[in-house]
Write a structure and sequence with these properties.
The complex is a heterodimer of chains A (292) and B (165). Chain A is α+β, with helices and mostly antiparallel strands and 292 residues long. Chain A is built from seven helices and ten strands. In chain A, a hairpin with a 6-residue loop joins strand 9 (264-273) and strand 10. Chain B is built from five helices and six strands; from the N terminus they run βαββαβαβαβα. Chain B has helices spanning 16-25, 70-73, 89-105, 127-135, 151-164; strands at residues 2-10, 38-47, 50-59, 78-84, 110-115, 139-142. Chain B is globular. The chains are: A alpha+beta (292), B alpha/beta (165).
Chain lengths: 292, 165
């Protein structure tokens, strides 16, 4: 270090003395206090006892001594008075010197900066946590949306299949109905519908011709099964009904119907329960007189 | 008169000052005030069957800029290594500080304190991370400087360990 002119050295010394409240302690090699001076009171260091262990009087020196040859620096030590001191320890011939210099102003400046830096770091950590939580929620939400979308797509596909199946069944039904209507309307054979209570609900012209009733009679509900069936042959009908209940259809059998004009007409008769019904039947009748 | 110097070590804002205040004065403040430099408090306890005055050096927390100053550690009989349970990175800092402290002080007793147990639902440390500490043979306490939970236990355990040396 370059030698400073005496006025500079003296000015610096005076500046330090005036602004930094220097104070000192001298500790002998046994760790006992041998000398002190300066503005110790401003650091709250009072009631010192000579030749007594220094660690019992100045607590921050407990364990610090003896010092090896290197000086020791303890910056910004908060003292009992509330002032912060820079503390220097160094060894001389008489023992260890402890120098205290006021660093309160510097400590406050540093604290203000440090507080802002730490607050900012904590804020950043907090923000990171919030962002992580948000990201997690977002991921969960996206997963939920994806699951729901997938389920919806599956349901749509299922619905499409069901609609196609329904369309196919309806087409089949329409085709089947068209075929049956063609057979019925051709009047090649007599066809009629009745329920097991005896009411004839519908019939084609061929059947109505066989039994001598008009379509108006049918519409008016005047065509009843028991009216056109001979009582002595009723047991054949009962057998046919029983067979239909068991297997859905009965074996065609010969029977005689009573026409509206009272004449008898022999017929080959067959019947089947309509699909899904336990009472509605469809029947065919073949005029045996015409075919024999 | 037995006096033992204990250092409070850990990352910044883990609650070192609050733990000392709770232990010495039984008070707590929610407001965070950073520590610059060091502040020494003392409290007498019974450890090893004797009255011991603990000199508690509340040392400024470590961060990316402020590193642990070895001069503060000189003459310490033990230290409390403080971790903030809500910040995972403070455990990493604690591991680094423990290495540094051991280099400076040698094998002196220490106790690990995982602080802020009153905020346990916000903890970022899982049982596995804490288990690794205990598996290393370290004494670990989950404390709350706010409620005082296990604060005295941690200090007294350290005092006992120091008196056993």
């Amino acid at each position: 270090m370059p030698a400073l002119p005496p006025p500079i050295s003296e000015f610096m010394l005076k500046l330090n003395v005036d602004t930094r409240s220097p104070a000192y302690l001298l500790v002998n090699k046994d760790g006992r206090l041998s000398e002190w001076g300066g503005d110790l009171a401003s650091y709250g260091i009072e009631d010192l006892r000579k030749d007594q262990p220094v660690g019992e009087q100045v607590f921050f020196l407990e364990g610090m001594l003896p010092l090896d040859t290197s000086p020791l620096f303890l910056p910004y030590m908060k003292t009992d008075s509330g002032l912060s001191a820079d503390i220097y320890l160094f060894t001389g011939e008489a023992g260890t010197w402890v120098l205290l210099m006021d660093a309160t102003w510097e400590a406050r400046k540093r604290k203000a900066i440090q507080q802002k830096a730490n607050d900012l770091s904590l804020y950043v950590v907090e923000q990171q946590k919030v962002e992580e939580e948000l990201q997690q929620k977002k991921d969960e939400l996206e997963e939920l949306v994806e699951r729901r979308t997938h389920a919806l797509a599956r349901a749509n596909f299922q619905l499409k299949l069901e609609l196609e199946e329904r369309q196919r069944i309806e087409d089949q039904l329409r085709t089947s109905e068209a075929k049956f209507r063609r057979v019925s309307e051709s009047n090649m054979i007599g066809i009629m519908f009745w329920d097991l209570t005896g009411t004839v609900t519908d019939a084609n012209d061929a059947f109505l011709d066989m039994i001598g009733y008009s379509r108006e009679d049918l519409t008016a509900g005047k065509v009843r099964w028991d009216d056109i069936t001979r009582p002595e042959l009723r047991h054949l009908d009962d057998q046919a009904i029983e067979e239909m209940r068991e297997s859905g259809a009965c074996t065609p059998f010969e029977k005689v119907f009573i026409r509206k004009d009272g004449n008898r007409i022999p017929l080959l008769f067959g019947a089947a329960l309509l699909e899904g019904s336990k009472h509605q039947t469809v029947c065919f009748a073949l005029d045996l007189k015409k075919h024999k | 008169m037995i006096q033992k110097k204990i250092c409070m070590l850990g990352a910044f804002a883990v609650g070192k000052t609050s733990l000392v205040k709770q232990f010495v004065e039984s008070v707590y403040s929610d407001k965070y005030h950073t520590t610059v430099g060091v502040k020494v408090d003392k409290k007498s306890v019974i450890a090893g069957g004797q009255e011991v005055t603990l000199l508690l050096w509340d040392i400024q927390g470590e961060d990316g800029v402020q590193k642990l100053r070895p001069s503060y550690l000189r003459g310490a009989a033990g230290y409390l290594l403080v971790v903030d349970g809500t910040r995972r990175e403070t455990l990493d800092t604690a591991y680094a500080i423990q290495q540094s402290a051991q280099q400076n002080m040698g094998l002196v007793p220490f106790v690990v304190v995982i602080n802020k147990s009153d905020l346990v639902e916000q903890w970022a440390l899982d049982d596995k991370a804490i288990g690794e500490l205990t598996e290393s043979g370290w004494s670990v306490y989950r404390t709350s400087a706010k409620t005082g939970q296990h604060v005295e236990d941690a200090f007294l355990t350290l005092a006992e360990k120091i008196m056993e040396v």
